[in-house]
Amino acid sequence: MGKNLVTAQIRGESRALCLGAVMVVCSAITYYILGTTVLPLYQKSVWTKVSNCHLIEIDIREHEKLEGKKVPQYPCLWVNVSAIGKSAILYHTEETKEKNHQCSYIPENLEDYQEARRDVETIRVRFKERQNFPCYSDPDETEKSVLYRRLYTPQMLLKWLFWPTFMLTGGIFIIMMVKLNQSLSMLAAQR
């Protein structure tokens, strides 16, 4: 009976050890992904200063209005604002500028032109209602554009770091408890 109890205990410890190891590996992978994708994007973002933007011009530009340049076949919302004492182009997020620097806002559904047009019109009306709004600018003024919303904020980094840290700590704790239990089991078996 004692041998069966020791065998069952070893199986339980092995399962717990595997669970702890899986948690540690998952958190390490998450940290790697975080470190190679999100952190560089956060560091690359220069729009850190909260400013007050005043709407100067807002226009929905169709592809034919953009001076014959090759542009996507969706309506383009163009927003010109006054921020930090200068005229600047407003972009929805960091990704908007990278996707198409000619558009301040890119609609989500690009397959259906009419739905994209309604989406852009809704955003245009919201901007018309609020002439002044907070935006993010570059404190060094190297960027001539401002952002309506930042994707990569310190709060976002904290959110991304919480669960991997929790899993890493939990996995290490499980492994330590299993090892401690194994040591105590060996001491008890020797007596």
Automatic annotation (TrEMBL):
InterPro entries: K_chnl_Ca-activ_BK_bsu (IPR003930)
Function text: Regulatory subunit of the calcium activated potassium KCNMA1 (maxiK) channel. Modulates the calcium sensitivity and gating kinetics of KCNMA1, thereby contributing to KCNMA1 channel diversity. Increases the apparent Ca(2+)/voltage sensitivity of the KCNMA1 channel. It also modifies KCNMA1 channel kinetics and alters its pharmacological properties. It slows down the activation and the deactivation kinetics of the channel. Acts as a negative regulator of smooth muscle contraction by enhancing the calcium sensitivity to KCNMA1.
One Pfam family of this chain: CaKB
Cellular component annotations (GO), alphabetically ordered: voltage-gated potassium channel complex
PANTHER family for the chain: CALCIUM-ACTIVATED POTASSIUM CHANNEL SUBUNIT BETA, CALCIUM-ACTIVATED POTASSIUM CHANNEL SUBUNIT BETA-1
GO process annotations (BP): detection of calcium ion
One Gene Ontology term of the molecular function aspect: potassium channel regulator activity
Keywords for the protein's UniProt record, in alphabetical order: Glycoprotein, Ion channel, Ion transport, Membrane, Transmembrane, Transmembrane helix, Transport
Post-translational modification summary for this protein: N-glycosylated.
Name recorded for this polypeptide: Calcium-activated potassium channel subunit beta
Membrane-topology descriptor: Multi-pass membrane protein
Subunit (UniProt): Interacts with KCNMA1 tetramer. There are probably 4 molecules of KCMNB per KCNMA1 tetramer.
